[in-house]
Amino acid sequence: MNSPKTTPDALIAPVLAQFAADLDCDAIPAEVRERAKYLILDAVGIAHASTRYDFAHRSLSAVSELGRGDADVIGLSAKLTLRDAVLMNGILVHGLDYDDTHARGVIHATASCFPTALGVAAQAGLTGRELLAAYIVGMEVATRLGSVAKGGFHQTGFHPTGLIGTFACALIAGRLHGLNAQQLAMAQGIALSVASGSLEFLQDGAWTKRMHPGWAGVAGITAATLAKHGFIGPKAAYEGRFGLFNSHLGPLAENCDYALATEGLGETWEVAQVAIKPLPACHFTHSCADSAMAIAREHKFRPEDIEKVRALIPAEVVKTVCEPVANKQKPQNSYDAQFSIPYAVASGLVRGRFGLGELEDAALAEPDVLAVAGKVAYEVDPNSAFPKYYSGEVIVTLRDGREFTHREHINRGAADRPITNDEIVDKYMENACLAVSPQRARQIRDTVLALDDMPAGAFSDALAAQA
C-alpha cells in the first residue's frame, strides 16, 4: 500500500482528544460562538421544514417502534431514547439536503454534530453553553478530518458526513460525559469500527443519505460510552495500516495531508469557513444552477429555442452529480434531482429558480424542464477552484446560433462569498414557517440565539413541537 504523502509526527487521535478535553468555552472567540449559533439556527429551520415530508414521518414511525424515551425531536412531539432522537434529528436536519457544508472537508458537519450535542447535553443536565462548546469542538474536528482526504472519499464511494461525522460525534459525546483525554483517544479508535456512509444512493435516489449524519451521532455516542467504561479500541484510528484513510481511500491515501487534521486547532476556527446553502440541493450543483438562473434573467428565449447546454464542473464531482447520465437527465424523485446537474441547470433556465417547490413530484415531471435536461452535457472545468470553491459554468447554445455564458467561480455561501447572519435568519424563517406560525418561528429563533444562557434541557424542549 502506498504511503501517505504527508505523514503525521504523532498519532492524530491523542491530539484531537486533548483538544476536545481541554478547550474552554471562553477560549473560543465571541464571533465564532455567535456564528455557531446561526449555523444551528439554519439547521433548526431545515429540521422544521422536513417535518412536512413523507421521509420524516416514515423515519419517525420506524424509530418509534424501537422504543420510547425522554429525548426531544425537533419540530415534533415524539419522545424517543437518546440515540434514536439523535438519529431522527439528524434525518430532519439533513433530509432536504439544504444544510451547511464545509467546502475543503466536503462535509455536512452540523447535521451530525448538533443533534449529538443537543441530545447528550440535555440528557446529562448540562448548560446550553456546554452544548455550544461541544458542538464547536465537533465542527472543528469533523471539518479538519474531512479535509485530510482532499475529496477522496467521494471518489471511492464513501460519504464523509456519515463516515467522518462519527469521530467528531464520539468526541462531542465524550466531552459532554466528562471523559479524559486518554478515554477520548480510545473513543476514536472504537469509532473506526462503527463509522459508515455509502454513496450508493446516488444510483437510484435512495433515502439512505438522509440517515448518515444521525447514524454518525448514534455511532459516536456508542463509541464514547464504550470508551468511558474501559473498552479498548485501536490507537492509530486515522493513519494506521487499516486506519480510516488507508482502509477507505486505497491508493488515494497517498494524496492525504495528515497535517490538516490538527493544523490550527484552537487558533484557526473552521466554523467560520462553513458555507450556508442558498439552494436545497447538493452544493456541487449550486454554481451551475446559479449560472443557469443568471442566463435566464439576462436573456430572453424559450425552452424550445435551446439547441444544447454545456455545464462545466470540477472533475472531482462528476461521479456525484453527473453520472449515470440517464438518471441525472430524468430524475425519478426529489433526491435524484438534488444530485443532478442536468435538472438543476434545466430548472434554472426554464423556470429561473431552483427551490423546494422545484423538488415536488409535479415539478419533476414538467415536460419543458425534462426536455432541456436531456440537452445538458457536462465537461470537466479546466479552471475549477475545487475544493476551495465549488465552481461552475453554463454555456447555452440556441438553435439560431446565439450563445450565452455565465460563470460562478466562487459559489454563493462560500467563505469568500458568505451568506450573512441576517440572510441566515431570512432562510430560517422561510423554512420554519413551512411548519409553524411566524410567531412560533420567531420564538424559536430567539431561543436558539440565546441557547448559551439556558439549560440544555430547556433548550431542547423549546425546539420540540408544543403540546
- The CATH architecture classification of the largest domain is Orthogonal Bundle
Helical residues, percent: 40-55%
CATH class of the largest domain: Mainly Alpha
Mean pLDDT reading = 95
Give a brief description.
This protein has 467 residues and is of the alpha+beta class. Helices cover 49% and strands 8% of the residues.
Q: Can you walk me through this structure?
A:
Residues 280-452 form the MmgE/PrpD C-terminal domain. Residues 16-250 form the MmgE/PrpD N-terminal domain. It holds the Pfam family MmgE_PrpD_N. InterPro entries: MmgE/PrpD_sf, MmgE/PrpD_sf_1, MmgE/PrpD_sf_2, MmgE_PrpD, MmgE_PrpD_C, MmgE_PrpD_N. This is MmgE/PrpD family protein. With 467 residues, this protein is α+β, with helices and mostly antiparallel strands. The chain has two domains: 12-277 and 446-463, 2-methylcitrate dehydratase PrpD (Orthogonal Bundle); 283-408, 2-Layer Sandwich (60s Ribosomal Protein L30, Chain: A), CATH 3.30.1330.120. Helices cover 49% and strands 8% of the residues. It is built from 21 helices and eight strands. It has helices spanning 12-22, 30-50, 54-65, 82-94, 110-123, 128-148, 152-155, 160-176, 181-191, 212-228, 244-249, 286-298, 318-321, 325-329, 334-338, 341-351, 361-364, 367-373, 421-432, 438-449, 456-463, and strands at 68-72, 79-80, 101-102, 274-275, 306-313, 376-380, 392-398, 403-408. The strands form three sheets. It has a four-stranded mixed β-sheet, covered by helices on one side. It has a two-stranded antiparallel sheet with strand order 1-2. α1 (12-22) packs across α9 (181-191), α2 (30-50) packs parallel to α19 (421-432) and α4 (82-94) packs antiparallel against α10. The longest helix has 21 residues, at 30-50. The radius of gyration is 21 Å and the shape is globular. The N and C termini lie far apart (57 Å). Mean pLDDT is 95; it is low at 1-6.
